[in-house]
Design goal:
heterodimer, A: about 0% helix, B: five-stranded mixed β-sheet, four-stranded antiparallel β-sheet, 9 strands, about 0% helix, about 45% strand
């Protein structure tokens, strides 16, 4: 079974902290994604990586950066966490051209 | 990216069929129609996809209009476990794409 693993299920951070959300996939997929999900707003794409060291902004990249140094790992970075970044964060991976994307269980981040 | 339009919510009774509609009037010839669902407290999961012909799998059926401007996800016998948010997504067939989700349809299933 394909697995997409997010490092934490729940996280509480303070305003201004630098926050790293880690995502690892075990199927050698080229594409990886970071989304946030908020009530009433659905899933919104933050960043997308189509290969190692390659990234593309999604719909809401402001306040976030990403890192993909190895194919299996895609990190989302909040340089200075703010309360409006309190949200559920979801990571996904997919092979280009394949119909199915695989999602992690999500990280619920609370910034206080 | 071509957009999709879905009803915000739908309701069904257990054991009854459910037809979840999706409009995608600006679909291009190379876009596949994908459906995902998100169960409570979980990440989305793939349900089914198609290009032009109707498709069936163990989870659901996908009926695609002849002009491809709309499609319908069919759950033949809804169970309580089918209560979820269902997303209709258009995805370019080749290369990479951003996998953009809309708001989806929240399906409630009543016993």
């Amino acid at each position: 079974d394909v697995k997409v693993t997010q490092s934490s299920r729940y996280l509480v951070k303070r305003t201004g902290e630098k926050v790293f959300l880690e995502c690892v996939q075990d199927m050698d997929h080229e594409n990886m994604f970071w989304y946030r999900q908020d009530p009433g707003l659905g899933l919104r794409l933050i960043y997308f990586s189509y290969d190692v060291k390659m990234k593309e902004k999604g719909d809401i990249p402001e306040g976030y950066s990403v890192s993909r140094e190895k194919k299996e790992r895609f990190s989302l970075i909040l340089e200075s966490a703010s309360t409006n970044q309190t949200s559920m964060y979801l990571c996904a991976s997919r092979e280009p051209g394949a119909p199915e994307a695989f999602f992690g269980q999500g990280t619920r981040l609370t910034v206080v | 990216d071509a957009k999709t339009t879905q009803p915000n919510s739908m309701e069904s009774n257990e054991e009854e069929p459910v037809h979840l509609p999706c409009n995608h009037s600006t679909i291009s010839g190379t876009d596949y129609i994908h459906w995902y669902r998100q169960l409570p407290s979980q990440g989305p999961e793939y349900v089914i996809h198609g290009l032009t012909s109707n498709v069936n799998n163990r989870m659901a059926s996908l009926a695609i209009a002849e002009d491809r401007k709309s499609s319908t996800l069919i759950l033949h016998r809804a169970t309580l476990r089918d209560a979820a948010v269902y997303y209709c997504i258009l995805m370019f067939s080749g290369g990479y794409n951003k996998l953009i989700f809309g708001a989806g349809t929240r399906l409630a299933v009543h016993p």
